[in-house]
Amino acid sequence: MKILVCVKQVPDMESKFKIDSSSKWYDQSDLVYKINEYDEYAAEEAVRLKEKVSGSELTVLSIGPERVKDAIRKVLAMGADKGIHILDNEEHLKDPFQKASAIAEYAKSENFDIIFTGLQSQDRGSAQLAPLLAGMLNYSFVSTVVAFENKEGYVEVARELEGGLRAKVKVKLPAVVACQLGLNTPRYPTLPNIMKAKRKELKTVNIEELLKVEPLIETEKVYFPERKAGGIVLEGKADEMADELIKILKEKTQVVK
Amino acid sequence: MSELLKGGEFLIREVSKDEVFTPEDLSSEQKQMMETTEQFIKNEVMPDVDAMDNSNHNFDLLVSHMKQAGELGLFSIYAPEEYDGLDLGLTTGACVVEKIAPAGSFSVAYAAHVGIGSLPLIYYGTKEQKEKYLPKLVSGEWIAAYCLTEPDAGTDALGMRAVAKLSDDGKYYILNGTKQFITNGSIADLYTVFAKTPEGEYVAFLVERNFEGVSVGREEDKMGIRGSSTAQIMFDNAKIPVENLLGKVGEGHKIAFQVLDEGRFVLGAAAVGAAKAALEDAVVYANDRKQFGMPLTKFGAIKEKIADMVSGIYSAESLAYRLAGLYDERVSTIDVGKDDPDYYKYYHKALEDYAVECSITKVYCSELLDKVADEVVQIYGGYGFIKEYPAERYYRDSRINRIFEGTNEINRYLVPGMLLKKGMKGELPLVQKAKEALDIMMTPSFEELDESVRFIKEKTLISNLKTMFLVLAGAAVQKYMDKIKNEQEVLFALADMAIGIFSMESAVLRADKVYDKVSDAKKKIFESAVKVATFNLNEDIAKAAKKAAYFVEEGDNLMAIISGIRRFTKYDASGLLQAKRELANYTIENAKYPF
């Protein structure tokens, strides 16, 4: 089987975000980056599938600046065979359509049987890349996948629906599978595997070689929503709080005169 | 780049930023290993830390996590590749142990196994011994322990009484004695045991737990790291096959002390990791906890504590990784191949050269951790005294670091001792440099600082402090000659100066090295950390210098030196308050150690 997993590198979501000077994205300096959580599940499932089906080859792909190689290396250490780095220092300014078409451009000649992605990225959160990619390659598409099993010539997945429901779905190959949280427990790359990954192939392609389309949507600006003024919490004994409340109502409103 | 810095040489020459290794220089693989370790500790081990500590000496949980660590390859760092190891060196060792350190008891079990437990075999084992035992230690199937201390031989380790006598048929050594405070004692399968022959020669053995006559005694009930095993190991006519003799007869003490050096370095790196974890817990707590209607982190009292902790950890981290870099670089210059039977001889010669820096790292990092743990309890206030909160455990767990793997006293004693030895052997031109230093001190200088040089105030101070150290060391040697080894108070004051100077220099040179590569916001944070660290360290060094002067000199000489100290410890720390606040605020906003 030829398997591809697409991963995105995103900042640690506990970081303190600032808007950058262009107001189109967050300031990327001094952030700690890691693999998008949804993509970790995709990577783990891809590695498991590769380990199960002998003779399989697993490629890991990521788009972004030099630093995203760290994300690729981690998936190589988890068990992928080779890496493709699509070098793009302005990945954050591309829309999902452009990114999907760049990946499709790369993937169309590779004839992957199955492509794993995360359901969405933790920073942009558009959840568009996977369905667009499936459409462009004319692959089956299934999303919110929480269980995965490889069968003869097709795959069977469980999808998470609203209201606590799940759906069991048969998916024809080739397919794009977008993974939901909880699909599996991603492994920690072991130290020996981290060292082995160093010797695996990691090819870099410039985004210009793969990108042939204009964006369809444009982010005008990113901003923090205005904070609503905080309320006042009174504490103390009931009668004192009542006095305090009347005082505030008298001073700051027209309710009590 | 100038020639690789020799051990102790930092005190007699100027060092440039390109000569120091910094955490910012770590490779992608090393960072990934840190991530793997951090995730493993956070997700698997930390949730069980309290249960391990309260297990009443049931070590099932501890052992099961040790096995997991083995599966992840965390025991493979130092072993050669032909025995399933990765042979990655001390920098990688520091990276991993730093991330394991927050897990107190587990961390101690880990370090004892990978470090002093397994290293004697790696360094001195024969091919047969390594084939038999090393893969088991690397995989975690077996756990290792190091048995040196005895009930009556602690710091005076060579005063050991354990005796190993060759049997009449020459097939066994008959070992008798008791080893005390053995980390991993109850969970280990392989003990490296040090003893004396009846002729008084030191020997080391690889002793399997199941050998006849080996028994594990009582578990100690400890103040901290309560989930780790610390037990007596008894040898009652234990039969040790001669093929389990490690190294040669007469080499035992060498083996024991060589691995201790590395153990001390690793301990320093671990202390850095534990200090970071304790700090971060305290900052998160202080952001959350409100008094007078405000989070604690809004108060200057708390901000200053945070700034001092961050700058201290920053110096400790800078010096630990600097030493790691020196080690690995020196090891990489060894001429013989790794398969050469004498490889580890050269390896030890390389490492031994930095024994001064190694002791400095152990002392500075372990004392820094204690200060941090103490302030973390203070920030938690009453809750810091309650077991339910993590501060209490950090406080108890940290204390042992100043005691084991060589007390901080013996390490302080070693610092000037080893330097003087290097001077005597002609490896360091100390006498010459001390004379020059005296001239420099007696010559007035009106030179203005070249403000265009980055960190010029700090660099000038460091150079002045080195001069002062040399003047005082020179005066002490002149007065006591070879009897100086009996003047421990003087030696300790000199040690404190050397410790402060190495820490300050590491902190400054690291900031200088990475400065151009970081964002503007980060530049300010580096500057603040350098200012706070330099100020704090300089105050400590000045005090140690004065103490040394009053101890050694009198009359006119004393007055000349005291005024020299005044001049040479001058540091203009203008903007100190601002620097502390900036450092604290950055840490508070991100709720993380900023470097």
Structure characterization notes:
The complex is a heterodimer of chains A (257) and B (595). Chain A contains seven helices and eleven strands. Chain A has helices at residues 37-52, 69-78, 96-107, 129-137, 191-197, 207-210, 238-252; strands spanning 2-6, 9-11, 33-35, 57-64, 82-87, 114-118, 140-150, 154-160, 166-172, 175-179, 201-206. In chain A, helix 2 (69-78) crosses helix 5 (191-197). The radius of gyration of chain B is 24 Å and the shape is globular. In chain B, strand 2 and strand 3 (172-183) form a beta hairpin. With 595 residues, chain B is of the alpha+beta class. A four-stranded mixed beta sheet of chain B has the order 1-4-5-8. Chain B has helices at 28-45, 49-53, 60-71, 90-100, 104-117, 119-124, 127-139, 252-288, 300-332, 343-352, 355-380, 390-398, 408-424, 430-442, 456-480, 488-514, 520-552, 555-568, 576-590, and strands at residues 144-147, 163-166, 172-183, 190-196, 202-208, 214-219, 230-241, 245-246, 290-291, 294-295. Chain A binds chain B through residues 14-16, 29-30, 34, 69-70, 73-74, 77, 188-195, 197-198, and chain B through 28-29, 31-33, 35-36, 39-40, 71-74, 76-77, 86, 88, 96, 518-519, 521-522, 589-591.
